[in-house]
Structure formats: structure tokens, C-alpha cells
Amino acid sequence: MKILQNLALLFFLFAVTATAKSRLGEYFLGFGYSIAESGSDDREADFLRLTAQAPNGSNSDIGVYLDYGTMEQNGSDASSWNLGLDYLAHFNGIGGRSALLIPYLGAGVGYLDDERPIRLGKDGFTWSLLLGSEIQFSNSLSVHLGGRFLGLWSEFGENEFTADAAVTWWFDAVHGVSFEYQRTFEAELNYFTFKYLYSWQ
Asked: Between the chain's N and C termini, which has fewer beta carbons within 10 Å?
């Protein structure tokens, strides 16, 4: 009986990995919930995170995102939202069957509006530069490591660097989930995000 259970588990894992996909070069929508906290004071936040990504060519993607939520500090709440557009250029994978490294470079523009400035000190149009890689361990499991350097168009002295890490698991060719961590160094905030991914192609 135990042998049949193990065979069923192996068959299930093979079926999942045979039909799943990467996050680069694919169409997908992401619906997420994020909490943020500061290690230095009493700031806490809740965000809804919406993302969409689509191939722009054989080696590039276009992505859009919207974050909306509230930040609590000293017992008072303030709203915050961030809308942006990113262009990602990814390169041929490096590695073998056990792990495939897919590096990328990117640039983006956006608009940030914090009722109480918590991320860049001011509101306004933003620019960003991205660098990172997806490490694909199988057709269903991948890890993302990257960083984003961003700032305000109106004042280049107002900038921020965020480090990002994410684990993505595709159940099949359509549905997946990701667990994401983000650290902002100037604002000293830690973001923890759970996201459902839907891919239609």
C-alpha cells in the first residue's frame, strides 16, 4: 500500500512539473496581500498588491503593478498607493538540469502617493532601475532574487533601494502562488507578501 502511495505522489509531482511555468516570458496576473513592519519604530501597514505581466518579445516583458493600503503610526492611519510600469529584459538561462539561472535587467516609471510620506519622503513621479535573476529548480519551483533602485523625478536626492526575494510554486499551467519578502533600506520596512498567480497562456 505504501508503494502505491509513493507512486501516486511521484505521478502527481511529475504531472505538476510537466505543465507548470516560469514567471519570466509568460502572461500572468498576481493578486496579493502584504503586511509591512518596521524594526525601528511602531509603523505597521497592510497592502493589496495587483500585478500583471506579459511578454514584449522573445527576451523581454512588460509589467504593471498597483499597491494600495494603509500605514499605521502612533495610533493613526494614513493611505498609500503606488502605480507603476516596468520593462524587463531577460537573458538566456545559465546552468543545467538541477538549477537554471535567468538574469534580467529592467527600468520602470511610476507614481507614488503617500498620505504621510513613508517610502521616499515625498509624493510624485518615480523612476526605477531593476537587477535580478530567477533561479528555476524545476518547471514548477523557482526562486527570485533581485533589487530595485528608485527615486523621484523631481528630486534625485530622494531615493531608495529595496532588496527582493520570492519563492514561486506553479501547481499547473494556470495556477500558482508566491511568498515574497522585500526590505527597504532607507525607510527601514520589511514587507511580507502572499500572492496568488493566474496565467492564461
From this structure: N
pLDDT tens-digit readout, 90-113: 987 787 666 789 999 999 999 998
Task: Using CB atoms within 10 Å of the CB of residue 92, give its burial: 0 to 12 exposed, 13 to 18 middle, 19+ buried.
Answer: exposed
pLDDT of residue 142: 93
CB atoms within 10 A of CB 107: 13
Alpha carbon distance 8, 137 (integer Å): 22
Task: State whether the Cα torsion 11-24-130-65 is positive or negative.
Answer: negative
Q: What share of the chain is helix, strand, coil (3-state, %, to 5)?
A: 10, 65, 25
pLDDT of 18: 40
* Total-model pTM: 0.81
Beta strands in 115-152, from DSSP E residues, in sequence order: 124-136, 141-152
Q: Decide: 64 and 84 in contact? Cβ < 8 Å.
A: yes
